[in-house]
Each structure stands twice: as structure tokens, then as C-alpha cells.
Amino acid sequence: MLRRSLRTQITTRVVALSATAAVLLGTALVVLIVAVTGQRDAARTAFRSQQALSLADQLEKSLLSIENGLNRYIATENASYLVPVRRELAAYPAETRRLANLVSDDPGQQRRASAIGGAIADYDMLWASVLPDVARQFGFAKARSQVQTDGGRQRLDAIRTQFARLFGRERAVIRARESSAESRSARAIGLGIGGLALVIATALGLTLYLRRSVLRPVRTVAEATGRLAAGDLTTRVPADREDELGELARSFNSMADSLERGREELEHSNAELTRSNAELEQFASVTSHDLQAPLTTISMYAELLERRRGEPADGDLDLVEGIRGATQQARTLIRDLLEYSRAGRGSLSVEEVPVGIVVEQALEALAGAIEESGAQVTVGDLPVVCADRASLCRVFQNLVGNAVKFTAEETPRVRIDADRENGDWRFSVSDNGIGMNPEQAQRIFEPFQRLHGEEDYPGTGIGLAVCERIVDQFGGRIWVSSNPGEGSVFHFTLPAALSSGAEPQRVRAGA
Per residue in 142-152, pLDDT tens? Predict the structure, then answer.
């Protein structure tokens, strides 16, 4: 299990390569930082050394200035030459301490700076400060004899020799430090460039690995998914890898197998359903014909019986009329059953239908019932929809026929309207009839479900069930809003015509 986990975890490989690249990049950055820091430290050290050399040179020149000032004072007996001498002598202790601080990182140079400071102090105490006192106490002639012995010059030359040693050593230190810094910097830069090259190489390797081992299989699965979505359920992808992508490929193949089996089962079920529907329709047609034939025979026998007996008695006449009524009712029931079995089945001749013209056809078919009841039918602006003309005519015929039939004593008033609802048209057939309990609103769309007895309102209870089947087949829905004694409003939806952008046309119908 562990070996398989290590073998299949492509994520582990990616993380390991990424971590390696990150470590190499970090190392290269550290090396570069070290190189930059070394260069900065070397620059600081060189600057301190340059300051030390500059200060030592200034001290040396100050000593020469002091010596020359003393010599001029003794030679000219002009005390103004002592002013710069005293100023230089007062400044040298701070300057020597500053020189010692600048060379504090080199013990040898620090010793040389201390020795120079001591020599300058001796020069001050034993010569520079004493010579003016000699001139004041013993006269300038005595002082000039002291100068001629070159006592001050000898001390000054010794100090200058020490300065020369300090200069030589400091310059050597500067050259050594610069050479070392350049060497370390070159080495660090080389390591940094090498590290960056390794990082780039690792990144390229990771990119190639991802492209070959991840992106290419994923693209293969994506293309196969597109073909599968387009309907090619035979599409499969290679599933020979033992990692996450292999599991993805196997899952895809399993899904494709399941979809292919599902399509085969669905095709088989559709074929069975088509066959069953065809058999059912054939059975309904045959049954309708076979049932109507005996009913026709019974009706004929009743008529023959009436003719043979001449003037039948009152009881016989009622019997004959009862037979006729029963056979007619049976014929109507069989016809409605056949219509219900065919409603919502088979292919439809769907086209762009002007609903106003269809409503006119439905009202013409109901002209007798409308005229007999004195109904007033008002038709609003009706659009063009996608539907089967004959089926849609049957829906309006059933709804308007019910509106005319289920009325109280007052004159029936029916109105047909249409309103746009999202991408569909919502049609409304409203009346002023007897209405119904809202709790029965769904029941009336079931076959043979009647809310009233046949002696009050004749019919089989099939009409609304047929309407529901037809509207369902169009992809719409049908419902009713009603209250007892307040009339009813039947609504149903149909898809709008795809190329219909015109306004609904006004169609007038009524009686």
C-alpha cells in the first residue's frame, strides 16, 4: 500500500520538485546577498583606510608646518608665527586618537599609530614647547643656536619615518582586503549564477514534466469529455497509469461505460414504449370499433322493435328511449376514451400558428351551443405560437365549451386573452359560470372526474384531461383559478413562435 501510494502520488513529485527549486533559489539568493555584503564591507574598510591615510598625511604636514613656524619665529623674532604653531600643537592629540580609531582593526597599525602619537608628544614637550621659552628667557641667539643643532629636525625625521611605515602597511592592507573582497565576490557571484542556472533548469524540467505527465493527459480527458458530451458514448481514454491521472482516466471510462449502458437501456425502453403505445393505440381503435358495432346493432334492434309494434305503450316507449340514450352515451364514452388515449401521443405537426384563427375555428365548431345558450364570447389580442393547429383548436374548443355549459341561469360570458410570461405566452379563458371549490382545482384534470351529476351537466369528464395531455405535450402547463359562484379562469402556457416579433393581432368573435 505504501509503495503504491508513493508511486501514484503525482502531487508528491510536484511538491518535491518545487521544494528543490525553492531551495536552490534560496541558496542562490543567500550567496548573492553574502557577495553584496562582502562588497559593502570591503568598501567600508577601504574607505576607513583611505581616511586613515588622509589623516596621517595631514598630521605629517602639520608637523612640518609646526617646524617651519618655529624656525621662522626664531629667525624673525615675530611672535605671529607662533599662532598657527600653537593651534596645530593643540589639535594633534585628538587627531592621533582619531588615527588610532581608524586603524583599530589591525593591531600592528594600532601600535604604529600609538608610537607616532608618543613621538609627536615627545616632539611637543622636548622641542616645540621648549624652544619659544628658550628664546624668551635666554634670547633669540641662544634659540637660534639650538635650531642649528637640528634637534627638532632629527625628531621630525624619525616621526616621518614612522609615518612612512604606517602608510606602507595601510596601503598593503588596502590591497590585500580589496583582493580578498574581489575574490570572495567573484566566487559568490559565480555560485549565485550557478544556482540561478540550476533553478532555471529545474523550472524547465518541472514545466516539461507537467506538460508531458499532467497537461497532456488532462487535455486528452478534456477532449474526450467534449466528444462524450457531443453524443459519442464510445469515447475512452488510456488508463494505464498508476497515479491520480490514471484514476481520473479510469473514472472517466467507468462513467462512459455507465452512460453507454444507460443509453442502450433507454433506447430499449423507448423502443418498448413505442411498441406498447402503438399496440395500445391499435387496441383502442379496434376496441372502439368492436364496441360501437354491438351498440349500433342494439340501437337498430330498438328501432325495429318500435316499428313492428306500431304505437307502443307508454312503458314500451320509455324502454326504447332508454335503450337509445344508453347506447348514445356508450358511444360518446367510447369516442372520448379513444380521444383521450390518442391525446398527447405520437408526432405533432408543430408550426407557427396564429392563435386568433385557431380560436375562430373552435368557435365555429361550437356555434350551435353558443347560439343556443346565447353566450357572449370576447376574444382579446392573441399572438402567434408554436403548436399543432388541430390539437390547439381542441383545447380551446373544450375550454370554451365547458365555459358555455357550466353556467347558471344568467347569460354566459366568456373572454379569451393572452399575456407574455418570460419566453412563453399565457392564455386565459374566463367565464361567469358556477365556479368550483379551489380544493377541486386539480381533481378536474383527471379522467372521469366530475363535480356534478350527469343529469345536471351532461358529459364524460374527459375534456379537461385531454386538454392537460395536449398542453403537456407542447411543453406548457394548465391550471384553474375559481371560487363557487364566481366563475372560473383557466390558464395554460405555450412557447412563443421563434420568428414572431410582431404584436398580437386583434380577432373578434362572438355570438
Answer: 777 777 776 67
